[in-house]
Amino acid sequence: MNAFFGELGKRLAERWVSLLVLPGVLFLATAAVGALLGHAHALDVTRLVARADGITRDLGTRPPAAQLLALAAMLLGSVAAGLVVRALCPVTWRWFLGTRPRWAARRRRRRWARAHERGDAAKRNRIALAAPTRATWTGDRLAAVEDRVHHQYAVDLKSWWARLWLVLDDSGRAELRAARAEAEAAVATTTWCVPYAVVGAFWWPAAVVAVCVAVVGWVRVRAAVEVYADLLEAVVDVHAGRLARELGAPLTTGEEVTAAFRKGT
């Protein structure tokens, strides 16, 4: 038991460091450089070295307790920055899901319809795999899962999902959890562009970093959502029939199973 809790604590510590401390330390370092240089001396390495050397010398003359407090303050600051970013992640998720603005969703739908009418399946599918209803590709990619399985099997995914989860084996659940975790990590990466953009207000190179972080995060989110959506659809493809059999009832179509799950609602 002690070994189990020791290993659990080790993994939690590693996750805590990777998600909060390291990104926070990088951000604090960027903010510190920005505070030392500002816009006027944004790329003045000599000035940076001189001022950093002065701060280091001053800290070296302080008592050990003061040095430990400075280190603790840095760690707490990095954790605080990480927690702020984690708190902003739901906002980033909502942006990627694209429920707003509606005019952008209508524009995507018109582009999709034109490609569909021309028979250009490749272009149509690059826009969305089903008629767009969201303002973003990621939002439509996730929404398309529900549309596609309903069209193919008459499955209402919201009604089916909890039951499908119960018939999944451990490996299937692990794959879904890993894909979801990768998508969440990609969203967190994207969200880090916000504090870097704030630093960019007084040190312009941080604004460049913010743009780079946003682009990298956007690419990662698209890739992660693609994998996650494929897995969600695969779960229905592979396990929908098994779930119907598990009911032990003479239900042969998706509509009948969905009606049973909804229980008249």
From TrEMBL:
List the transmembrane segments: 66-97
What does the UniProt keyword field contain?
Answer: Membrane, Transmembrane, Transmembrane helix
Q: Would I find Transmembrane helix among this entry's keywords?
A: yes
Identify this protein by name: Vegetative cell wall protein gp1
Question: Which organism's genome codes for this protein?
Answer: Saccharothrix carnea
